[in-house]
From TrEMBL:
InterPro entries: DUF427, DUF427_sf
Protein name (Swiss-Prot/TrEMBL): DUF427 domain-containing protein
Domain of life: Bacteria
DUF427 domain boundaries: 15-106
PANTHER family: BLR5716 PROTEIN, DUF427 DOMAIN PROTEIN (AFU_ORTHOLOGUE AFUA_3G02220)
Pfam families xref list: NTP_transf_9 (PF04248)
Length: 113
């Protein structure tokens, strides 16, 4: 059976923090639900401090979403490698996540305010 993927607006105000810094807040978050995996919150790039995020060379491919590119988080005290990812040109089924970044829960804290 094919894996189901759903992308939907996630109401509320969401924040992402790492290394003692706030990377962004949004009330335009998206939630991606993929099969039995935990839901993932995606932040619009326009609501993130992109000066703190540096693209890395890392790339992965998901058969359901497409090619992911990764970002390191730069704070005053640390660099957190490959902490977030983005699908710049995702497959049609998840096209809404284009222009958004999600973060690994062990590298950044994402929570609803």
């Amino acid at each position: 059976m094919a894996k189901t993927i759903e992308v939907r607006d996630k109401p509320g105000k969401w924040v992402v923090r790492a290394g003692g810094a706030v990377l962004g807040e949004t009330d335009r978050a998206l939630e991606l639900i993929e099969g039995d995996l935990p839901p993932v919150i995606y932040f619009p790039k326009g609501d993130l401090a992109m000066a703190m995020l540096e693209p890395t060379e890392t790339r992965t491919t998901c058969p359901h979403k497409g090619e992911a590119s990764y970002y390191a988080i730069h704070t005053k005290s640390t660099v957190i490698d490959d902490a977030g990812w983005s699908y710049e040109t995702p497959h049609d089924a998840v096209a809404a996540i284009a222009g958004h970044i999600a973060f690994y829960p062990d590298k950044a804290t994402v929570e609803e305010l």
